[in-house]
Amino acid sequence: MTLSNRLAVRSLVHLGVAAALAASAGAALAQAKPLAGQTVKMMWIDPLTGLMGPVGGNQLKSWQFFNEKFNATNPAGVKFEIIGVDNKLSPTESLNALKSAIDQGVRYVIQGNGSSVAMALIDAINKHNERNPGKEIVYLNEAAVDPDLTNSKCSFWHFRFDGDTSMKMEAMTTFMKGQTDIKKVYLFNQNYSHGQQVAKFAKENLKRKRPDIEIVGEELHPLAQVRDFAPYIAKIKASGADTVITGNWGSDLALLVKAATEGGYTGKFMTYYTGVTGTPAALGSNGAGKVYQVAYAHYNMGGQMDTWMKEFNTKFSDDFYTGAIIRIYEVLGAAMAKAKSTDPVKVAFAMEGLKVKSAFGGEVEMRKSDHQLQQSLYMSVWQKADAKYSYKPEKTEMTLAPVAEYAPYVSSTPTSCQMVRPTGG
Q1: Which of 119, 184, 191, 389: CA 20 to 30 A from 79?
Q2: Distance between CA atoms of 278 and 32, rounded to whole angstroms?
């Protein structure tokens, strides 16, 4: 064989190897991104107007921000599309939005502000899915925390990414167990399922962990209607309470802490939602060392979360706090990659028992028995920002600094869910 022939053969061999490698890389890429190019429509149904409108506005911006992030990185290769609808915190408006979602071919709906809304959506989705096989809807719950949603009212079609009221109270009262200066507690909550459950689980947990603590007052007030909490603060002061336990959120917490400052109440607040829109500004430099929050995240998580929070703040001049949005994208993308499908039934089965290494807080697991995400919970305290805990929400000089972390096995609570699953899983 001549030199020119040998070189030609060698070139062909090299080309063949290169082609094989390219084909192999292409196959690996296709395997890694099995649904590349498919679009998944998701409808977000929460308030954008009224007293709770600022909370919903922040969350919709958060969805849009992370939609861009996870469209570029999710393992399924899908493109998510977010459609935002104002439900005015109304179950009726939410059901109208659900009908619109169905008409538009949306197969995934998102909601979180208000467990009463969540109950209505679950009931409607259960009925729709039973009557319309092949057109099923999956409900992704970012913040509705009534434990009944994953117990007596549990549904195969519902997945909760926040910690429920009982889980958070388990962590909160574990922390309170070591706070020997807490002796008299006032339970102050919104008059709907979540607020009622906060009071219920607070009493049960304190009786078990700190039977010496006296409950000196218990009150429920209308949700998102009260503009002046001064009369309530006067009653709390008169009770002699050194600590208030409240599940209030949005304007109902911001206005409450504002009234406490103006009314001279100096006791502690054990809260669920200090980091939510409006409350940091209402606190300002007040409440340092006395206002606590239990949550699955806080302002100073470190790592990737810090980078995203700074970027979000720069882009919107606002603070990101609904970490469940990240978890939903993480779990949904992993489940779609696992199922190699965007079909809600297949994806729902793939989400059951799925474990994901989250961008914050370590590994999380979607518990199969009730579709409640198992995750670490944190107690944090309102204090002056410093070099270690430097994030300053709502242009205050303060922050929420972590004081205790509770692994999933500590904060997890049992479930009574009797899940009814569709066939074919």
Answers
A1: 119
A2: 42
Question: For the residues of 35-93, what is the DSSP string, one character each?
Answer: TTT-EEEEEEEE-SSSTTHHHHHHHHHHHHHHHHHHHHH-TT--EEEEEEEE-TT-HHH
Angle, to 10 degrees, between the axis of helix 91-103 and the axis of helix 115-131? 40
The secondary structure of 160-223 as a DSSP string is E-SPPHHHHHHHHHHHHTT-TT--EEEEEEESSHHHHHHHHHHHHHHHHH-TT-EEEEEEEE-T
Q: How many CB atoms lie within 10 A of CB 200?
A: 16
Query: Tell me: the pLDDT tens digits for 128-143?
Result: 999 999 999 999 999 9
Query: Do 62 and 84 form a contact (C-beta atoms < 8 A)?
Result: no
Residues facing 332 on adjacent strands = none
User: pLDDT tens-digit profile of 101-154?
Assistant: 999 999 999 999 999 999 999 999 999 999 999 999 999 999 999 999 999 999
Indicate the pTM of the whole model.
Answer: 0.91
Q: Which domains does the chain have, with CATH numbers?
A: 39-163+303-374 (3.40.50.2300), 166-295+377-411 (3.40.50.2300)
Task: Give Cβ neighbours of residue 225 (< 8 Å, ≥ 6 apart).
Answer: 51
DSSP helix/strand/coil, 110:
strand
Say how far apart CA 99 and CA 94 lie, in whole Å: 9
> One-letter amino acid identity for 249?
W
Rounded to the nearest 10°, the torsion over CA 154, 156, 160, 163 is 50
